[in-house]
User: Fold this.
Amino acid sequence: MSETLIRAHNFNAGPAGLPLEVMQQAQAELLDYKGTGMSIIEMSHRSKEFEAMINETEADMRDLLNIPSSYKVLFMQGGASLQFAMVPMNLRPAGASADYIVTGVWSKKALQEAQKLGPARAAADLKASNYNGVPASLDLDSSAAYLYYCSNETIHGVEFFQDPTPPAGVELICDTSSDFMSRPVDVSKYAYLYAGAQKNVGPAGVVVGILREDMLARVPANLPVMLDYKVQADEKSLYNTPPCFSIYMVGLVMKWIKRLGGLSAIEARNIAKANLIYNAIDASGGFYKGHAQPEARSRMNVTFRLPSEELEETFAKEAKKQNMIGLKGHRSVGGMRASIYNAVELADVEVLVQFMKEFQKKNG
Ligand SMILES: Cc1ncc(COP(=O)(O)O)c(C=O)c1O
Assistant:
């Protein structure tokens, strides 16, 4: 007997919902990938089928992001958190310092990790304003090895819509984990950008790194192989067994983004979804209060408060009863957070906004 599928309105911050048609394709191919009689997770990563799949995933990503041929695309493990250490290990030459823009939990962690391994400083730290925006000015070191920032702080819900400009000769590096492929970006501005896949482009387990080739000259000779960008680049992400299933899923998501019309179409969808919630917040007469300054409001993670913690608790509970999942804010900040990554549909956001209005009517 077939039952109607009920999918949650999934506002999880990551891992997060994936497009239904991607999940269905993965399900359909799970037992027999392209007539091989095997699942993609049952075959060798040295097989011609796997090689074709990873190459196609990379080609589609290059196409969508318009990645110049002078850049390497790396599929790595260890989560975005391992990149906090790998970036300075690989790209900060001995004796040099690095600059970090601290706009929330993730850039702070990246700075702390870099400081364990050598000199690094904050070019700005917005702690005093509880990380509710992006800095108006930077205290930049013109001899820094690089300037690092996080384009979207997932926990605080603040996003850069204008890239910071490093001094001449200083390279730009970006953690774009939670807004990766949510809009077009000019890859050529960056020496390196990276993202954990588990928000916008796939399941947990794979990190995508996009590295300008000449940066490989900075990689020191004595790094452990698994922490060495040069090894990953030379071996085309296949030095060891890669996260096969996660890469395959990223590949399916690339095709889905292409079917939707590419990154400009995805951006338009994401703007429409974000506007819907922020407009509801602004029209609530102060019942809902957005955390981020309007100009830095994340299109991916909408953070807001209610008049009391009790009401926030009730909001999350009642939303859950109506199949809206993942709305409780991160434990370090509190309040609510609606994560509305690429796969979240406008219809999901409409359900949430309707709920917000009704909740206010009952409790306002
Ligand atoms: C912006 C950002 N950077 C880094 C991380 C850390 O990612 P991971 O859990 O893959 O190490 C996260 C996790 O949510 C994140 O949102």
In short: The two ends are 45 Å apart (CA to CA). The first strand starts at residue 9 and ends at 10.
